[in-house]
Design a protein that fits this description.
heterodimer, A: 179 residues, mainly alpha, 0% strand, elongated, B: 181 residues, Rna Polymerase Sigma Factor, Chain: A, Arc Repressor Mutant, subunit A, 2 domains
């Protein structure tokens, strides 16, 4: 243990010029070659969204659409607060599910790619879903769709926040935490 | 953003890298590549191999970016990766070297072989021609003239460890060429 400490001290005490930029170039090339492709990540996210939709519709109906159960599921509890809250929360629940599963299923670099273009990703997934619901549901209206979209966007955004972004968000909201 | 990165601490640079800002790796490289290279050179690696290791270390810093815990110093994180990669690098080299030494010792005429294939002296010369003159000389003495490292070291006025590195590197190069064929 003492040797490691000494070794680290000798490592940190060195003040050498930066090494050749050619090595950095090779590192950059290697990173570029192994970087995930946007198209592949979008396809994976689409598949994850399909699976997540299946699971979500088992518990919470979206615009009256549900799978393998009768009644209102989670909607019953949301409706007790208000209809507006219910649709917003259904949207949030629906999209948050997709992005929570994506966070677990994608590798870290793929997830970073989703995050980098998350406005586009969340918007696309939400709009495509809304389109499908409009085609299949009798309950759809502009007002409800907008409320649902608002909730879905918020849900997607919240679960995509990194630890650091969460910390900044909380600090902006409540001020810096005192340790 | 790039200008701001220069002002960040190593810890914040590693956090930025983990959040997808690849430019943070450039700044970390500028700050610490000299240190990593000096560490490798100080531990006996030749310059080209030390640069190999440098590349591996910063690739690992990039690949393991999400594992960095900001509770620890950024420099300590880079040191741990450097130390561990140096150890792995050496182990791989020793393994390669021992495998080659084993395969060479099993040949009846002590000439270089590739994947168990006996190569006659003409083929050996053809293989050697692919190497640099210094490497050819060392391999010729080692495998065609059957000299020991201390004898080669005395003749060429080189250290034994350096000769072992030359032999290991040359064999790895030849094996790579052979595998590509």
């Amino acid at each position: 243990m003492k040797d490691v400490k000494k070794d680290f001290e000798s490592f940190s005490s060195v003040s050498e010029e930066a090494a050749s930029s050619a090595v950095l170039g090779r590192i950059k090339n290697q990173i570029a070659v192994s970087a995930p492709k946007m198209r592949n990540v979008a396809v994976k996210l689409g598949l994850i969204h399909l699976a997540s939709s299946f699971l979500t519709l088992l518990a919470c109906p979206q615009f009256g659409l549900r799978l393998f159960f009768k009644g209102h599921g989670l909607m019953h509890y949301f409706m007790q607060i208000s209809e507006t809250f219910c649709y917003a929360f259904c949207g949030a629940f629906y999209l948050a599910g997709t992005f929570v599963i994506a966070r677990m299923a994608l590798n870290y670099d793929e997830w970073l790619l989703v995050k980098k273009s998350r406005t586009l990703m969340i918007g696309s997934v939400a709009m495509i879903s809304l389109g499908v619901f409009t085609m299949l549901s009798q309950e759809m209206s502009w007002e409800l769709a907008l409320i649902w979209l608002f909730g879905a966007t918020l849900g997607g955004e919240f679960v995509s926040l990194s630890r650091n972004e969460w910390r900044s968000f909380k600090e902006n909201l409540f001020g810096p935490s005192v340790k | 953003m790039k200008n701001n990165l220069q002002d960040l601490s190593d810890e914040n640079l590693l956090i930025a890298l983990a959040e997808g800002d690849e430019a943070a790796l450039d700044v970390l490289y500028l700050r610490h590549s000299g240190r990593v290279l000096a560490y490798a050179l100080k531990r006996g690696l030749a310059k080209d191999r030390a640069e190999d290791l440098l590349q591996i270390v910063f690739m690992q810093v990039f690949r393991k970016k999400h594992l960095y815990d900001p509770k620890h110093r950024g420099l300590a994180w880079i040191y741990v990766i450097t130390r561990s990669e140096l150890k792995d690098y050496r182990n791989r080299e020793i393994k390669d070297f021992v495998e080659w030494e084993d395969s060479l010792s099993q040949t009846p005429d002590n000439s270089p072989i590739l994947e168990g294939q006996v190569v006659d002296s003409q083929e050996a010369e053809a293989l050697l021609a692919e190497l640099k003159p210094r490497e050819q000389e060392v391999l010729r003495m080692k495998y065609l003239e059957d000299l020991e490292y201390d004898e080669i070291a005395a003749r060429l006025n080189e250290s034994e460890s350096n000769l072992r590195q030359i032999v290991s590197r040359s064999l790895r190069f030849l094996r790579g060429r052979h595998e590509r064929r």
